[in-house]
Amino acid sequence: MVASTGRTLRRGLRLACILTCLAGSALWALGGMAQSDAVAPQTAAVAAAAQRMGIYEMFLHADPVVKAVMLFLLLCSVATWTVLLEKSFLFARIRRNSEEFLAGFRRVQRVDQIGPLAAQAPETPLTRIWVAAQNEWEISRRRHGQKPFSPHQIDRLLQRMALAAGIAQEEELARLGNGMGLLATIGSTAPFIGLFGTVWGILHSFADIAAAKATSLSVVAPGIAEALLATAIGLFAAIPAVMIYNSFARSISRMTGTFDNFVAEFSTVASRELEEAL
Questions:
Q1: What is the C-alpha separation between 18 and 195, in angstroms, rounded?
Q2: What is the pLDDT of residue 139?
Q3: CA distances from 165 to 101, 112, 240, 249 (A)
Q4: Would you say the pTM of this structure is higher than 0.90?
Q5: Of 29, 65, 201, 217, whose CB count within 10 A is highest?
Q6: Which pLDDT value is given to residue 22?
Q7: Percentage of the chain with pLDDT > 70?
Q8: For the chain, what is the radius of gyration of the CA atoms?
Q9: Mean pLDDT over residues 112-130, rounded?
Q10: Higher pLDDT, 48 or 120
Q11: Residue ranges per domain, the chain?
């Protein structure tokens, strides 16, 4: 998914560069036409065009379709930074609480001591994984009574605990992955949405140029600049989304390793305790 998003962003960047070069060539050609034109420059039109070259002014004078594209991309950017803030705080809290729980877990060596520790610790994915495995442990112990487990029964119990923990782990990873699809979608589609706004704006700008029969570069440039602004906003939305997605994907991968190691550790504790009872 990360590689696919990166390839899509690179394609968008290449298209943006090609489109910018084409627009620049058009501006250069129109500028040459203006220099060879014997008609006196239209001072009022040039002054009006100069007032449209600020970003806010370009947005105000853009075509309604281009405006809609820009607003949508800005909303995508806001969503990206919202996901960044929410997940940054979430992951930091999970790491801090998980480290505290793991430190306490490694100090005890009995299954019956881990339950109270998990109940007192702040709620984290590790405590929820342990609770799922502990429920299977307690059910099996109640059904078996005071009789010691045979080696085959120990293996079956450890397998059931690992399965219960695996189900809980998948639920936790799904919860941690909330918002990742949004980041991937924004990162892969925002450049193309911006390019759509640019193409539409350039077409609309050339139509206005033909209708006004004005070839002065000062008159032509604002309309094309307004169109190119859509591509710039698209890249502004896409590049952070891809970088944030990659960062969170690495964090989730590290947490997955932590979860796997924790399952292996408590399986070792449970296996040792059951073997001691033989």
A1: 11
A2: 87
A3: 16, 17, 35, 22
A4: no
A5: 201
A6: 47
A7: 77
A8: 31
A9: 86
A10: 120
A11: 2-276
8 A C-beta contact, residue 248 and residue 173: no
Q: Residues near 82 by Cβ (< 8 Å), separated by ≥ 6? A: none
In which band, very low, low, confident or very high, does the pLDDT at 200 lie, cut at 50, 70 and 90?
confident
pLDDT at 189 over 90: yes
Residue 217's pLDDT band (cuts 50, 70, 90): low
Q: Which amino acid is at 28?
A: W
What is the C-alpha to C-alpha distance for residues 164 and 135, in angstroms, rounded to an integer?
Answer: 9
The tokens for 36 are 């060879």
- Could you tell me if 98 and 126 are in contact, meaning their C-beta atoms sit under 8 angstroms apart? yes
Q: Which two tokens stand for residue 167?
A: 């189900």
Helix ranges, 106-179 (H): 111-120, 125-144, 151-176
Residue 259: phi, psi to the nearest 5? -65, -45
Q: What is the average pLDDT across 66-71? A: 89
Strand, coil or helix: 133: helix
- Using left for φ > 0, alpha for ψ between -120 and 50, and beta otherwise, residue 145 falls in left
CA 117 to chain centre: 34
Alpha-carbon torsion, ordered 256, 122, 142, 261, to 10 deg: 20
Q: How far apart are CA 184 and CA 240, in angstroms?
A: 11
- Residue labelled with tokens 């695996």: 166
Through-space distance between the first and last CA atoms of the chain, rounded to whole angstroms:
49
